[in-house]
């Protein structure tokens, strides 16, 4: 018993700390095992020497007078007590180090997604750190930790803010490295005056999975080719279990963004790749966290899977994961997703009916639904030219509403207006009959002149049929 971990760790406690430990042992917040209080009483009397009467059988008899000695029961009891003492020491250290305590609270607030409380606590920590007179490696380490928690808290779609925080992080990392390196070099120099130190030549950095993946990711940014994409994809999925969740999400997002960019070259081929990546991300629980999904991410998955004609899979996805959406947008996203699925199944009238039945509350999804309706009307028009007037009146109403709406971002409004204008030209040409090659070329050239336009790939496909 004297050589057990429990006794070794209890010897580290002062008399005062030993008395304070009782509050933890008694607290129902930490344990409901009343036998631990009895064990504590025995150990308190023997502290700090623990020399006499420390045979485990004797102590067991004091705690369980009516029971025969059980080694497994004794091990479980002492294990629980050891964990309580460890918790006590951690608690004492956190109370002593206010910054570590506040960083832990900040981490908890971030994980629970309370932006208001997170922001206030972050400001308090940053202010406290900035008021510190020291600018040593500990100062920069603490700022790095706070910056990392802030990055975890920022929504992935807020690209500009994330980029700014990453720039700050790189600066802090360089400062931490330089200050730490200089301090270590100073200490080594002082030792060299006392003892003879052997010169150590710099050795190549050991092989590291994280470095390999990051270097391959950088190569994909630089080369932007399918070979590098496949190499990174293989390296990523083969070593998935060795990567933290945040790294899994970052690399999968990079792979998905690559195939989305490449859709301009071959929409069907790269859409299928996107669907496969989304599918892997869902099966391996990379694309969502704490049973939450963003509306944009949800719609991207629906679009990729429906375009790949995986209709049953898409229906199941909507059913299973729509509860993961924020309640404020869930109804809009689900209606838009189901209507898009109907569109890909060429059930255009049903898709329009579903959109008209839903009162879209959020501007982004409201405008997306109207564009989607126009695409449905255009598909019906291609089969039956009597839909032309309905298509044109719907398009004109949409355009007027866009001009009146001052809440839409300028770039988004421009893309929608360009879509509406080009759709009018395309429908007018189609009304005349089949397009000859010269007209197709003229329309394709016109489409390329638009810097921003919604549904570019779909419009291109409608020209070429």
**Helix count, DSSP H or I runs of 4 or more residues:** 22
Low-confidence stretches: none
Rg (CA only)? 32 Å
Look at the helices and sheets and give the structural class: mainly alpha
Range of strand content: under 5%
Q: How would you spell out the order of helices and strands?
A: HHHHHHHHHHHHHHHHHHHHHH
Which features does this protein show?
single chain, elongated, 74% helix, 22 helices, 0% strand, mainly alpha, 465 residues
Short description:
The protein is mainly alpha-helical and 465 residues long.
Which SSEs are present, and which pair or pack?
Layout: H1 5-10, H2 15-26, H3 35-46, H4 56-63, H5 71-96, H6 98-111, H7 115-131, H8 137-153, H9 159-192, H10 209-223, H11 226-238, H12 245-262, H13 267-283, H14 295-307, H15 311-321, H16 327-344, H17 348-357, H18 363-383, H19 388-404, H20 410-431, H21 437-449, H22 456-464
Helix pairs in contact: 2-3, 3-4, 3-5, 6-7, 6-8, 7-8, 8-9, 10-11, 11-12, 12-13, 13-14, 14-15, 14-16, 15-16, 16-17, 16-18, 17-18, 18-19, 18-20, 19-20, 20-22, 21-22
Describe this structure in words.
By secondary structure, this protein is an all-alpha fold. Among the domains are: 5-96, no CATH class; 98-192, no CATH class; 362-465, no CATH class. 74% of the residues lie in helices and 0% in strands. The protein has helices at residues 5-10, 15-26, 35-46, 56-63, 71-96, 98-111, 115-131, 137-153, 159-192, 209-223, 226-238, 245-262, 267-283, 295-307, 311-321, 327-344, 348-357, 363-383, 388-404, 410-431, 437-449, 456-464. Helix 12 packs antiparallel against helix 13. The model has no long low-confidence stretch (mean pLDDT 91).
């Amino acid at each position: 018993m004297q050589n057990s971990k429990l006794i070794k760790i209890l010897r580290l406690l002062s008399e005062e700390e030993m008395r304070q430990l009782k509050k933890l042992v008694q607290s129902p917040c930490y344990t409901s095992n009343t036998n631990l209080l009895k064990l504590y009483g025995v150990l308190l009397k023997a502290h700090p020497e623990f020399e006499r009467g420390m045979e485990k059988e004797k102590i067991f008899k004091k705690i369980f007078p009516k029971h025969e000695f059980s080694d497994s029961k004794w091990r479980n009891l002492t294990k629980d007590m050891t964990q309580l003492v460890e918790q006590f020491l951690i608690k004492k250290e956190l109370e002593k180090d206010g910054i570590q305590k506040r960083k832990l609270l900040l981490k908890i607030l971030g994980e629970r997604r309370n932006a208001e409380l997170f922001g206030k606590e972050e400001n308090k920590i940053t202010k406290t750190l900035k008021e510190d007179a020291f600018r040593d490696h500990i100062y920069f380490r603490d700022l790095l930790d706070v910056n990392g928690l802030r990055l975890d808290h920022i929504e992935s779609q807020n690209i500009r803010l994330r980029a700014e925080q990453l720039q700050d992080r790189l600066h802090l990392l360089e400062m931490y490295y330089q200050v730490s390196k200089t301090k270590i070099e100073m200490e080594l120099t002082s030792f060299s005056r006392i003892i003879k130190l052997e010169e150590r030549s710099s050795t190549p950095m050991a092989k590291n999975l994280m470095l390999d993946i990051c270097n391959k990711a950088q190569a994909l940014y630089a080369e932007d080719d399918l070979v590098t994409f496949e190499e990174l994809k293989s390296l990523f999925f083969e070593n998935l279990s060795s990567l933290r969740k945040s790294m899994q999400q970052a690399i999968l997002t990079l792979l998905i963004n690559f195939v989305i960019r490449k859709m301009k070259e071959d929409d069907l081929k790269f859409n299928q790749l996107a669907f496969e990546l989304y599918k892997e991300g869902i099966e391996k629980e990379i694309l969502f966290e704490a049973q939450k999904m963003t509306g944009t991410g949800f719609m991207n998955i629906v679009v990729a899977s429906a375009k790949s004609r995986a209709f049953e899979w898409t229906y199941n996805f909507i059913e299973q994961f729509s509860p993961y959406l924020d309640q404020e947008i869930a109804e809009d996203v689900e209606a838009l997703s189901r209507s898009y699925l109907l569109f890909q199944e060429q059930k255009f009238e049903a898709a329009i009916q579903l959109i008209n039945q839903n009162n879209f509350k959020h501007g982004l999804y409201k405008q997306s639904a109207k564009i989607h309706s126009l695409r449905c009307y255009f598909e019906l028009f291609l089969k039956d030219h009597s839909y032309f007037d309905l298509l044109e009146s719907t398009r004109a109403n949409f355009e007027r509403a866009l001009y009146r709406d001052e809440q839409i971002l300028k770039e988004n409004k421009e893309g929608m207006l360009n879509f509406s204008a080009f759709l009018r030209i395309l429908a007018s040409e189609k009304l005349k009959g089949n397009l000859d090659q010269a007209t197709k070329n003229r329309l394709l050239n016109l489409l390329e002149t638009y810097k921003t336009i919604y549904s570019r790939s779909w419009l291109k496909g409608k020209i070429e049929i």
